[in-house]
Amino acid sequence: MLRISLFFIATLAMTPMFAKSKAKAPAVAEVERWGCYEVALVADVPSGQNPFDVQLTATFCSSADTMTVAGFYDGGEAWKVRFMPSAEGDWTYSTSSEIVALDGQCGTFRCIAPSANNHGPVMVDSTGLHFCYADGTRYWPIGTTSYDWMHASSDPSVSVADAGLTMQQQTLKSLAESGFTKIRSLLLPQNFNPKYPEPDEYPFERKADGTWDWTRLNPRYFDHVEACTRALADIGIEQDLILFHPYDGGRWGFSAMPIEAGRLLCRYVGARMSSQRNVWWSLANEYDLVKEQPAEAWDAWTDAIIAADPYRHLVSIHSYTAQYYSYWDERYTHCSIQDQAPVEDFGRAAIVRNIYRKPVVFDEVLYEGDLDVRWGNLSGQEELFRMYQALIAGTYCTHSECYLLGDVDGQGFRYNFLAVGGKWQGTMWARTKFLKQLLDDLPQPMYLVDSSWDPHTSAAGPGYYMVYLGKEVADQWRFDLPTRNGRNPAYPKIAEGERFQVEIIDTWNMTITPCPTIFEAVAQDNYRTIDRQNRAVRLPQQPYLMLRIKKI
Amino acid sequence: MLRISLFFIATLAMTPMFAKSKAKAPAVAEVERWGCYEVALVADVPSGQNPFDVQLTATFCSSADTMTVAGFYDGGEAWKVRFMPSAEGDWTYSTSSEIVALDGQCGTFRCIAPSANNHGPVMVDSTGLHFCYADGTRYWPIGTTSYDWMHASSDPSVSVADAGLTMQQQTLKSLAESGFTKIRSLLLPQNFNPKYPEPDEYPFERKADGTWDWTRLNPRYFDHVEACTRALADIGIEQDLILFHPYDGGRWGFSAMPIEAGRLLCRYVGARMSSQRNVWWSLANEYDLVKEQPAEAWDAWTDAIIAADPYRHLVSIHSYTAQYYSYWDERYTHCSIQDQAPVEDFGRAAIVRNIYRKPVVFDEVLYEGDLDVRWGNLSGQEELFRMYQALIAGTYCTHSECYLLGDVDGQGFRYNFLAVGGKWQGTMWARTKFLKQLLDDLPQPMYLVDSSWDPHTSAAGPGYYMVYLGKEVADQWRFDLPTRNGRNPAYPKIAEGERFQVEIIDTWNMTITPCPTIFEAVAQDNYRTIDRQNRAVRLPQQPYLMLRIKKI
Question: pTM higher than 0.90 for the full model?
């Protein structure tokens, strides 16, 4: 319980309300917009009944909206209904259940303005290719990955944490020091190494014979996942929660759960966690390596998590390398791809975006690290290059690092951030705040203004260009932009005589250097615009440069 | 009529049958499998009735199959029903029509074995990623493009043809000299230059006021297209027939036809031409540039051509650059893409294939030529490079050339093969027979055996590898193959001690040179296999080399 309470300190206005037979609210309970209002109820579990099968819902009404959400059993005599209001003002609710003590419970509360860093859940924006928060604020997915961080052992001998911090607190501290805005985390524990200690809690109850009771969940397991998720919200990070995965290796057998158990798990997680605004649902990591599950499991579980989430948080699924999923399926809000090929060089990532016409996140492109497997030994420079490579093409890319740490038993058992979190060991993470600021400064998301002809140059609003030079090391960049504007009528073509300033961004060293020259546009031919005097920007002969070019 | 009769000489067994009120067949008419059996009927058009609206079908029965196909009005008193039998043996047929003279006409014929070069229509093969003929023979799409060649003028002042040949005959002669196996041709005439002469025939009838009667077609226009298509079949070339296009420029207004006229056109073309085994349907070229048509036109016309084709020939649609269509729609059998980006360098084309999981044909990747527009000035080497780049990734690529020819009016009116066919002017075409032989020699189609890790190396069967070096100019290639076999269980991993021979293929100079060394496999690490003595193949320091590596 220590871990949970530590997280709880950092969590947002939850307004727990306890009532034996009637919810007794304070005169006017308040919850912020996109916060979580919780109705807590108390009732005995009827003899012979599985409390995870009990029907419990509440209908929430305001002048703006009416929404019915499912409640859930929280262990002992506790039952809860959680709700994320999307409109300010007064709300009433009323519960409905087959259990008399849970039925017809009513109450009121007031939804107040969101706090400063609460922009609501992330959704697909009006372009269909990028993301924004519910309040319209742009959201940039700068993701990292730590599969098992929520289930990391509190044993200090298998951790990398500052004194007094658990491994999980250290992971949160690391994230807070970075510019990351998303983390991919496994809901179920990962058997990434059989020698790693057992998790404190398990998602299912055990039967007397030690096997899992696939019809009964362990609420305390989910308390902890929720606390971790709230802690992420507090530092502005989206929880890309991976519901299923193939990394069980027979240790617990969760990857072999019956389809119906997966449905129950989705329904329960949806009821508990949909009210957390920073949740995304990732059906699986490497779903196609979950050999125990037939293809219909993914259909069933996708349907189940969507049915269990009245807010329609972002949903995707993730495959093994280059095994692209049918992301055109309208149930998936965006592409969560594993493939390094599209971000290894120019001219590739845009192809994926052009095909799917949805937001594209390359959620695994190999990792910075020193593993002796080929997916885990990129340099920090290469990892950063891949992120910018994705961005210049109007797509996104997710990081992780896996530098081997520890030697717990003297026989080579080692771990890393990708597996369990902890302190950063790599170099790429430290460039993400700078990157985030660059993105926050963009008027609009980037897109290649002359796709398939110029993979270096994106527009990010009228008269605002980003030119990524990648690994090129040159002493100058001759002023040379595509004249056309793609198909965006809001972005006019460059006209003769327009003047531009250029800044040289060193993405690795995190410097921004203005170029003193003011360039003046003149058409070179039907396609390109150059400077009237054919002048160039002097470059520092470093790789990983980006040019920010603004019309004056 | 000259053109039609010239083509007709070259056409295959059509068995025309004429009858006033009863089809009088010879004792046993014969048609080869996948040939065209034609029932010709004669009847007056009932007064006041549009013959293009008349219902006429015939049901064909054999012990193997029963199929009902639509007939069509062929002008004057002529009506026809055409049928492509897919099984040898005796067939009977019986017609059905609202017109008494066309109703209940019966007959028999015998379907005999196909002739040597008749392998039936092309279809998607059992892998779902490549093509084969109906008889199981592998089909390699080595395509070229000549949009208006079927409608090219017979005026010798606007042609490039050997003495005594029309431009269309010259085009067929050019194709026969090449290794091309597919041509993209427009069904409707192209206004590629307003000064180019009018076509001899038009697809629709004109009304008294000179406008088109969208309810009445001109059978003679289609006779000619069919004759051209049969002439292609005779030289082993598939007709990728483009039903609609945006290149009308208001000259005739065909691109602005009502949706219903397009439906009629599809129905009519389907009835007339589905029995031609070498037909593919391409709904459009650059459909998204046909500004007169709403999105629903493409849905309607796709449905119409599929409904009009009982044999389910290949169907696709083609967009403007990088505007990828929803090829996941099950109505489309393959992807017909316009985008040069995927074949400009390694590591790209496979992404497209991995996403769509259908046969991928990059049907426009810019053209060899000397135009002053950027889509028409590739070198022959570059065009060939793109074709091999597609092939190594298990996809396909289509050629054309557009060297400017002629100066008809002394004011710059010029034309080229891409527009109207004629004689080859370029250099790439001459490499296609060599390419076709390489492909015909493959045991299986190519696929990248370690996709996203090694974009140079494809397997083409167990122990059979192709390594494309592209533009690399080197004096040696160290023997180094992926150990793994992708996910194909039929292709085992390379085992230690296996021995390989290597041939150096110069794709541009069309030479095949055996390397004298026999290489012996040994694992380098988990992923790659090298030679036990780390030996290399000596290379001629030329670009565009491919290595063919076979296990001994």
Answer: yes
